[in-house]
Amino acid sequence: DARMKSRIPLILLACGSFNPITNMHMRLFELARDHLHQTGRYEVIEGIVSPVNDDYRKQGLVSARHRVAMAKLALETSDWIRVDPWESEQEAWTETVNVLRHHYNRLLQSRKEFTRNKWPLQRPPPDCPSRQHTGWHLSKCRNLSFLFVFLVLPELKLLCGADILQTFKTPNLWKEEHVKEIVEKFGLVCVSRAGSDPGQHIHESDLLTKYQHNIFLVKEWIQNEISATQIRKALCRGLSVKYLLPDSVISYIAHHNIYTEESERKNEGDLLQPLR
Fold this sequence. Notes:
InterPro entries: Cyt_trans-like, Euk_NMN_adenylyltrnsfrase, NadD/NMNAT, NMNAT_euk, Rossmann-like_a/b/a_fold. 41% of the residues lie in helices and 14% in strands.
């Protein structure tokens, strides 16, 4: 599409517990992509789900091995969102800004390899292996030329629920210089639930106001209140969660008996790692 060619390629990165991944988590990506396309400035070429490290110490956080496996199952039906286990595989909890830096550096690295190898600048074949592409994961192989992707370095933005703007004010949870780097260098795409006022949080912060041009507020047009916490509670009580999670994830949870009263007590009384 000629209109898309003049747009800035963009990658959305979502960090979180994904405990478990829900249909709402995946809807955030779809809503954000639609919104960014409607600005006329961007083409979203990839979404990345990055489950948090076990060392985050959140109560009820089950093993990353399971959370990554469930996310992979959930995203089998997506042709543009993938799971990246890097953050979950580190020795310790990684601050969000470092996860963004890691993915950005990988983009730079891929670009370097691209120019060094002088790959042919033509459209890739239709059977391009979209998820396993050399050096980086190109999700829309069929309709994006390599030239477009690598001559215009994609922007990388953090995708989140609008409630994250509130957490920026929580003492010691975020370092101010990290928040600055996230909004200045990368950017935020915040999907707000009905009844929340993310604009107010931006207005109350000098830093967020200064960089508000790099904060995209996306309105949810259909109320979606699926909460992973409520889902775990329902699973512990033996209630149905069908149509809230993909069937493949529900089967995985049942097969491995993941969410129990015991798993909900994990890390009980622990301080979150960033607050230590």
